[in-house]
Task: structure prediction
Amino acid sequence: MADQLSKVFAALADPTRRDLVARLTVGDATVGDLAKPYDISVQAISKHLKVLEDAGLVTKARQAQKRPVHLEAQVFDLMTAWIERYRRQAEERYSRLDAVLADLNAAQEGLAS
Amino acid sequence: MADQLSKVFAALADPTRRDLVARLTVGDATVGDLAKPYDISVQAISKHLKVLEDAGLVTKARQAQKRPVHLEAQVFDLMTAWIERYRRQAEERYSRLDAVLADLNAAQEGLAS
DNA sequence: GACTTATTCAACCAAACAGTTGACAACTGG
DNA sequence: CCAGTTGTCAACTGTTTGGTTGAATAAGTC
Result:
């Protein structure tokens, strides 16, 4: 079984699932309501929601026959943390590189003058 | 062909590819160097790098027979933008909900006292 | 109890994916 | 020019994925 971070990225790799997440930021919705705009079957949407659920992006409550779907936005933090960690590291490296280049330039300036 | 955002998420859904990205934040590296730590074939790593390249996360230069791989960290911004957009929207909704609940509580307090 | 609504389970299919091995291309250095 | 190094292309394989249809479950309504 894959780790959660992999599942979250994989879940959001599908445009339909990203769209579902986008719509859930507006408010909770039932499986049926969520399925309406698409011309694929309700079962397909149900599967998509299961993927989002397994990734921890979404939870379902029960309310009569309906299962209102709710967005769990905290999981976004997992991704943001991963992205920011490596972005920062990469940027740091570029700053160091900039510093080195600046030094080189300064040294050459010194030679030239 | 899928849109870039889908490709970026899909690319990072694989732990090996996330690991490659992590190592590239430290500095550029050749395909061979990148392949060494894993016990899968060089060809498999080459394929992974192609996926990262198609997603725009990585570029390859040519330098003799070697192809130093370089991380393009700006692409992270695409993801961050998507995530932040919907996170913000979700959080906004929760604040509104909090306000409503606070009002309800206040009203009940009023009744109780 | 029978019917309707809402959702999921199960079996199936085609396409994509992650890996393999083997051959080939491109470039270097003796 | 030949031998070695570095990387990719091609064909094949097993598994995962996104969709389908049809049947099953669960709850509410008449």
